[in-house]
Amino acid sequence: MSVRQHQQSAPSSLAVAVLTVSDTRTLETDNGGGLVAELLAGAGHAVADREIVPDEPLLVKELVERWIADVAVDAVLVTGGTGISARDTTCETVVSLMTKLLPGYGELFRMLSYEEIGAAAILSRAVGGVCDQTIVLTMPGSTAAVRLAMEKLILPELPHLVHEATK
């Protein structure tokens, strides 16, 4: 079966949990998480849940684990906490839960980001993978990075990823 046939057999509507990792954001000021939710809805997907938690590994881990265990959640999208400061631990926390890594996601994100921001793309630690049968993808918290990840990578491929992860 070709990739195109696989994509056509993928679900057209998904239930996606959205997590913003930030010490300072609220629902009113969470532009990155808001954009994720808006773009998901625009593509015909449902936001199954949306939360904001501080940059605390245990809180991030507990919430992502809860969503992974929820059969009603097809995927988890995480924004924020992907930088290189001491408080940025999203990537390490999420990767510790992954049963399969998708290195191409981060590689492609950085390649596309390089086209927009140049060498500063080296600071991006976007990671993705499968946690049991749930797709989990992280992205930086800026709206430009969210738009890039969502429009160029996530929305075009998420249904196919979910389909493959649940086979």
TrEMBL record:
Superkingdom in the source lineage: Bacteria
An example Gene Ontology biological process: Mo-molybdopterin cofactor biosynthetic process
CDD domains reported in the protein's UniProt record: MogA_MoaB
Pathway: Cofactor biosynthesis; molybdopterin biosynthesis
Keywords from the named record: Molybdenum cofactor biosynthesis
Cellular component annotations (GO), alphabetically ordered: cytosol
Domain MoaB/Mog: 17-161
Transmembrane domains' residue ranges: none
UniProt family annotation: Belongs to the MoaB/Mog family.
Role, per record: May be involved in the biosynthesis of molybdopterin.
PANTHER family assigned: MOLYBDENUM COFACTOR BIOSYNTHESIS PROTEIN B
Stated name of the protein: Molybdenum cofactor biosynthesis protein B
Taxonomy of the source species: Bacteria, Pseudomonadati, Planctomycetota, Planctomycetia, Pirellulales
